[in-house]
Design goal:
Length: 475
């Protein structure tokens, strides 16, 4: 068989092409190296830019995606259960001073615990068992911490008559708890009845729509925090009730049981304030003439934003803020820095959240007005007296912006720092101090100084026996 040398094999052809492409001069070889280097650098830049964009997108979406179910998983081992005390693993949270509760089996077990009394072992702490809200006993197994302390609803936790009502917001009906004022109290009977004394009622707020039984016309609208629940308000509802203040504890868009927003994303208060505005409309339509806005964490930021944007600024007489999100850019940068995200990634993530083009990358329906959620902005627009609690050990919402807002507006903002407390756990750290500060502030604000001074705090006995229908669920 004769080989046809006129046909070139693929391998031979490729080698010939490579040889032909090789530069024959030193200058040519340097040029080729430069081209190869440029291609490599471009490839690395593309990969780095891609990684930067992916990281920034993850960082931007993390606070926007509702994740209520992930925050309450059992992760605290219970090591021993005695008749009068419980031993749990020693953690940052369990060794803090103050009060907390733990639950198991999704709330089938719920017990209330007092301050640390001893350290049975180097890795455990002992806390007194103050109350059990369920018949099923606590087991030696993992439990979930309930920082709300109380469980269930105002009715099952405190025996207060509670109505389930719906607030009509721009995205749909929002469930809320309505606890009417104590029948024996009349807020505003003391001196200084408030800015609405003697003022004509607005249409739709006539006496025919007021709560029966002669309750007062001051309402507190209670707003829970990011990924939290209405049960966050259970720690203060008894005090409000005893002062004769009606409380409306609301939900907002993307909450469990509430309608979703168009993009199913949190807007960090930029839009959620509209649901609080709807709650103000509901309160006024049912007889409210004075409104106190009370919010925890992101709920505090929502209360602030509502106070400067509401159409009823004259009806809002004051704010109570607990570890509020005063500056979202500060919060986002704080957490990104803790995760060691580089500055370009942090900046890109904030750009994605706040720009018309970038918001599409994180699937936001509209960009977030983070520039309107800063201490400087609120200091310029705030007109209402404000009591501001903040935990100095807060690793979720750093206290710096709260302190800054108070420094900018000392005429309006009373700053109450709590040493040794974690995020929204100021009440847990020292319920006597917390409720005394709250009662005195409301007494001055509402003309109830005598009633506030007469209150024994905490209003609800922390070791009170469980009510007949008490439950361990977080609602």
């Amino acid at each position: 068989m004769t080989r046809d040398h006129s046909r070139t094999s693929p391998l031979t052809g490729s080698l010939r092409w490579v040889r032909a492409a090789q530069p024959r001069s030193e200058q040519g070889r340097w040029a080729q190296a430069a081209v190869i280097g440029a291609i490599g650098a471009a490839s690395m830049f593309t990969l780095s830019a891609g990684a930067l964009a992916v990281g920034a997108r993850v960082m931007a979406r993390l606070p926007l995606v509702p994740q209520q179910g992930l925050r309450h998983r059992p992760d605290l081992p219970v090591r021993a259960v005695h008749e009068d005390r419980v031993h749990v693993d020693r953690t940052k949270e369990t060794e803090r001073e103050g009060y907390l509760a733990v639950r198991q089996s999704g709330g089938a077990v719920h017990v209330r615990l007092g301050p640390v009394t001893s350290h049975p072992t180097p890795t455990t702490v002992a806390r007194p068992l103050l109350g059990a809200d369920t018949s099923e006993p606590l087991q030696v197994a993992k439990a979930a911490v309930n920082g709300f302390y109380w469980a269930g609803s105002p009715r099952t936790a405190h025996g207060l008559e509670t109505e389930e009502v719906e607030v009509s917001s721009p995205v749909g009906p929002m469930p809320a708890w309505l606890v009417r004022a104590d029948h024996t109290k009349e807020p505003g009977q003391g001196p200084g009845h408030g800015p609405d004394q003697g003022r004509d009622q607005e249409p739709g707020a006539g006496s025919a729509q007021e709560a029966p039984g002669g309750q007062g016309d001051t309402w507190a609208i209670l707003i829970h925090g990011h990924g939290s629940m209405r049960g966050e308000a259970l720690r203060v509802i008894p005090l409000l009730h005893h002062l004769g203040v009606t409380s409306l504890t609301i939900t907002y868009r993307n909450d469990t049981g509430a309608p979703a927003s168009a993009d199913r994303m949190y807007h960090l208060g930029a839009d959620e304030w509209e649901d609080t505005e709807a709650a103000i409309d509901f309160a006024i339509a049912h007889g409210a003439r004075r409104i106190v806005l009370f919010g925890w964490s992101m709920g505090g930021g929502i209360a602030l934003r509502t106070s400067v944007r509401t159409a009823h600024r004259d009806r809002v007489v004051g704010l109570v803020l607990d570890s509020p999100a005063v500056d979202w850019q500060d919060i986002l940068i704080y957490h990104a820095t803790a995760l060691k995200a580089p500055k370009p990634m942090r900046n890109l993530g904030i750009w994605m959240m706040t720009s018309t083009v970038g918001r599409r990358l994180v699937r936001l329906h509209e960009p977030l007005a983070l520039h309107e959620m800063t201490p400087q902005y609120y200091a310029e627009h705030l007109i209402h007296p404000t009591l501001l609690f903040h935990a100095l050990d807060d690793a979720t919402v750093p206290p710096g912006p709260s302190r800054h807002l108070a420094a900018l507006r000392p005429d309006l903002v009373e700053f109450a720092p709590f040493e040794g407390a974690s995020h929204t756990r100021e009440w847990n750290r020292d319920p006597v101090r917390y409720e005394r500060l709250l009662a005195d502030y409301l007494g001055r604000l509402l003309g109830l100084e005598a009633e506030a001074a007469a209150l024994e705090v905490p209003v609800r006995d922390l070791a009170a026996p469980a009510l007949e229908d008490s439950i361990g669920l977080r609602l």
